[in-house]
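Format notes (please read before filing issues)

Several people have asked whether sequences and structure tokens are stored in separate files. They are not. Every record keeps both together, in the order shown below: the sequence lines, then the token lines. Line labels are part of the format and must not be stripped during preprocessing.
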Amino acid sequence: MRLDLAAARAFGLSRRTAREAVRAGHVDVDGQTTVEPGTEIGTDARIEFRPDRPRKRAVRSRLSILFEDRDVVVVDKPAGLLTVPTEAREKDTLWTRAIRYLQLRYGGRPYAGIVHRLDRDTSGAVVFARHRQALHALQERFRTHAIDREYVALVEGALDDSGRFDADLVRTAQLRRTVAKPGQAGRRAVTRFRTLERLPGASLVSIRPETGRTHQIRVHFSAAGHPVLGDRVYGARRQGVAPRQMLHARRLGFPHPRSGEPVAAESPLPEDFVRVLEALRGAKKKRPGKAGPPRTG
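Then the structure lines:
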């Protein structure tokens, strides 16, 4: 059961009041303050309501939080921001913003373990571990691909209703990736997709990678003749349609590293993605002729 619902029932609060009480740090679960209303708790969990406790400090941050508890924090990465610093030691990255947020909210010297990354121009959900035990558990999940990940993308051309790319990847001299040639040793990469909507010269697709290779989605779609709109590295042909590669990590799900209960975080489509999508839909309405298939996503 969700913590806010359990607190509402236990203490005679409205759902909204219970949710705010949790966020304010007024509710403990088994002796630990928990500030995430959506935390799943067991039926035997001991919850306490402490309304006289000082309210948790509100944090103004450039970071959008999708899920948070004492073990993990899932954040919404904007396009154009590195996940972690490179050798150039950039000061503003998603990781440094996460550290700053945790420091402002909880004080001390917070830990944000790096579990996975998204490309600079890919947006969406990213999880950080708040201690080493959680980090090792989540890294193992990603290593064995025991993660529920869904991306959405706008790609060039029309695809089948669904499909699967199974093509090994190799790294080029320019540190890019490409599909391995026959007889060439590469790293196995598998990507499943489902077409959500067909648009003028493009398709909106839902993508579930079965492996997690660098640039996997972008390379697979490019090799199939359907590069991601705006992807200047992997061969997007339609220039000026999109300000960056239209690839978004929409959903991230995994078993909680402590409880094993499912955690699911969903990132809404960012504004630039929505603008491109709506522009394509507008162009579709203006085209004469037979209407396309019904939209399902």
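For reference, the curators noted about this record: The longest strand covers residues 190-199. Confidence is low (pLDDT under 50) at residues 291-297.
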